[in-house]
Amino acid sequence: MLTATIDALTPLPARFTTGDVVTLKDGGPRMTVTYAGPVALNPGEWLVCEWFDEQGELRREMFAPSSVRAEPRSIPAGSVRWNRMSRAA
Q1: Count of domains in the chain?
Q2: What is the rounded CA–CA span in Å between residue 73 and residue 31?
Q3: How far apart are CA 71 and CA 85, in angstroms?
Q4: Reduced 3-state DSSP string for 29-40
Q5: Residue 47: CB partners within 8 Å, gap ≥ 6?
Q6: Is residue 82 a part of any domain in this protein?
Q7: Residue 11, SS3?
Q8: What domain range is 33 assigned to?
Q9: How far apart are CA 47 and CA 63, in angstroms?
Q10: Residue 44 forms part of a structural domain
Q11: 44 phi/psi in degrees, rounded to 5
């Protein structure tokens, strides 16, 4: 009798790399991964992500890879929300 294990059915942990687009599993803005790897004084792998908040300020934070999910790099045009900004005359 032959026995074998099928590794294809076992999901592999998500691996993120610089440039990937992610969101928190709990929701939130689309963020770009700017670093993936070990961080001093913090065991394990981490993601450093950047995004622009609602006021247009650049934000940066560190997340565990298990707390985010991958998003497509591009988004459909119908889902883009434009902010109207007043122009100085």
Answers
A1: 1
A2: 10
A3: 28
A4: CCEEEEEEEEEC
A5: 16, 22, 33, 35, 36, 62, 63, 64, 65, 68
A6: no
A7: coil
A8: 14-72
A9: 5
A10: yes
A11: 90, -170
We report the CATH number of the domain holding residue 44 as 2.30.30.390
Answer whether residue 27 is part of any domain.
yes
Q: Examine residue 34 and state whether it is found in any structural domain, yes or no.
A: yes
Would you give per-residue pLDDT tens digits along the chain (89 residues)?
Answer: 555 555 444 444 568 999 999 999 999 999 999 999 998 888 899 999 999 999 999 999 999 999 999 998 877 777 666 666 555 54
pTM (whole model) above 0.85: no
For residue 55, the one-letter residue type is Q
Give the position of tokens 């942990």.
13
Contacts of 24 (CB under 8 A, 6+ apart): 63, 67, 68, 69
Q: Which two tokens stand for residue 89?
A: 């005359």
